[in-house]
């Protein structure tokens, strides 16, 4: 058992509910310890505080991060900065992996890994107003970051036994920025002769994800496209509540489900916890706890097959009931292994 804790940053709405509930499961099944850090929009409204230097230092002392979801106001609020955007930048979490896999019975088959650039592009924060008539957002692409992201994506694909990487961009319009991203990704791909490297424009990729997802294995794409395509892929398969992600940097990794704080269902105890559970599996694996990761994934998949589902997935179970079933499956699995 590792005595260094994982930072627990639940933030708002169902993000907070699920991070807390899943951290209890990780603690009771695998002995993972947590250091809780308060952040998010509700915390800001109560206290006027966002993540400060001391919080960031405490997070740095942890061995990884379990993040819930934040509520982001739609327009600027003085003094508030989105904790997730801040953490991605502060910890240089340049790669975000978003596996979308269908497990529910039905026609909606999907097994795609989206590797999303996570700190640049339109998220670089270079947005300004030029007065009442014009606003500008700069899309930033750097060679160094694109190259390490592309290498990461091909290595990750190889590690998972995947064989096809599709670079998704819009270089027919954004010839310099997306053009540079495309050029570097295709160039790095030449170092991986075992991989079939393809490319697709982002609008067509969105269409094909809905109509013919089988053509994709690994998608390597830019920040905003990865954001949108991961919701599209989740919507075209089991749903947003199942979709996990892991943000990775040179020093640490941050597990974050793809969904947001879901104000429409917050506080009702019915949020789907599988996205948070599968995000935790990705984090455990990254932290070297491969066996725990496999045990948790198998337990969650079994609970899905046993129809322990929340209302968004057509079930009638609460978050707690689903997590209880997952926990029982973990324990039954470890008894079997003895
Ligand atoms: P959302 O992802 O929170 O919700 C979209 C829809 O999916 C809602 O109907 C919601 O009920 C449903 N849903 C999402 N996750 C679910 C789950 N686990 N179980 C059951 N149903 C689920 O998107 P939104 O409503 O556009 O955003 C709400 C807030 O969350 C916004 O302020 C947004 O900025 C923020 N957000 C944060 C993150 C993050 O912190 N990582 C991600 C996305 C959105
Ligand atoms: C996501 C979210 C975030 C993003 C928001 C909350 C900043 O939508 O992780 O998918 O756009 O990256
Ligand atoms: Mn998103």
Q: List the domain count as a whole number.
A: 2
The hetero molecules present are: nicotinamide-adenine-dinucleotide, 3-isopropylmalic acid, manganese (II) ion
Q: Mean pLDDT, as a whole number? A: 97
CATH structural architecture of the largest domain: 3-Layer(aba) Sandwich
CATH topology category name of the largest domain: Isopropylmalate Dehydrogenase
Widest sheet, order of strands: 2-1-3-12-11-4-5-10-8-9
How big a fraction of the residues is strand?
A: 15-25%
The first-level CATH class name of the largest domain: Alpha Beta
| Overall body shape | globular
Which structural class fits the helix and strand makeup?
alpha/beta
Q: Strand count, sense and closure of the main sheet?
A: 10 strands, mixed
- Low-pLDDT residue intervals, each spanning 5 or more residues: none
Amino-to-carboxy terminus distance: 18 Å
Describe this structure in words.
This protein is an alpha/beta fold and 338 residues long. It folds into two domains: 1-102 and 240-338, Isopropylmalate Dehydrogenase, CATH 3.40.718.10; 110-236, Isopropylmalate Dehydrogenase. Helices cover 42% and strands 17% of the residues. The protein has eleven helices and twelve strands. The strands form two sheets. The chain has a ten-stranded mixed beta sheet with strand order 2-1-3-12-11-4-5-10-8-9, sandwiched between helices. A two-stranded antiparallel sheet has the order 6-7. Strand 11 and strand 12 (253-255) form a beta hairpin. Helix 5 (143-159) crosses helix 6 and helix 10 crosses helix 11. The longest helix has 19 residues, at 319-337. The two termini are 18 Å apart. Nicotinamide-adenine-dinucleotide binds at residues 14-15, 69-72, 84, 240-241, 256, 259-265, 271-272, 275, 310, 312.
């Amino acid at each position: 058992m590792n005595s260094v804790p994982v930072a627990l940053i639940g933030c708002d709405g169902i993000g907070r509910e699920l991070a807390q509930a899943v951290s209890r499961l990780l603690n009771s099944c695998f002995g993972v310890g947590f250091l809780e850090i308060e952040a998010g929009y509700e915390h800001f409204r109560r206290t006027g505080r966002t993540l400060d230097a001391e919080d960031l230092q405490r997070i740095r002392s942890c061995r990884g991060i379990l993040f819930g979801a934040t509520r982001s106001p739609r327009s600027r609020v003085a003094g508030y900065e989105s904790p997730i955007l801040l953490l991605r930048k502060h910890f240089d979490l340049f790669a975000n992996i978003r596996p979308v896999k269908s497990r529910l019975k039905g026609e909606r088959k999907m097994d795609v890994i989206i590797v999303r650039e996570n700190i640049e592009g339109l998220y670089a924060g270079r947005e300004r107003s030029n007065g009442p008539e014009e606003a500008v957002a700069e899309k930033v692409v750097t060679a160094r970051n694109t190259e390490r992201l592309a290498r990461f994506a091909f290595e990750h694909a190889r590690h998972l036994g995947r064989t096809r990487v599709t670079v998704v961009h819009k270089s027919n319009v954004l010839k310099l920025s997306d053009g540079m991203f495309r050029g570097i990704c295709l160039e790095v791909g030449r170092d991986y002769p075992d991989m079939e490297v393809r490319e697709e424009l982002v609008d067509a990729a969105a269409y094909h994800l809905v109509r013919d997802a089988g053509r994709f294995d690994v998608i390597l794409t830019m920040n905003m496209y990865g954001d949108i395509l991961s919701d599209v892929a989740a919507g075209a398969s089991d749903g947003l509540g199942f979709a996990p992600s892991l943000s990775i940097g040179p020093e640490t990794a941050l597990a974050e489900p793809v969904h947001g704080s879901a104000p429409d269902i917050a506080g009702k105890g019915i949020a789907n916890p599988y996205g948070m559970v599968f995000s935790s599996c990705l984090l455990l694996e990254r932290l070297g706890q491969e066996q725990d990761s496999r045990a948790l994934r198998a337990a969650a998949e079994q609970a899905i097959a046993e129809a322990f589902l929340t209302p968004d997935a057509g079930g009638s179970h609460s978050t707690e009931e689903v997590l209880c079933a997952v926990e029982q499956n973990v324990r039954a699995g470890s008894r079997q292994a003895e």
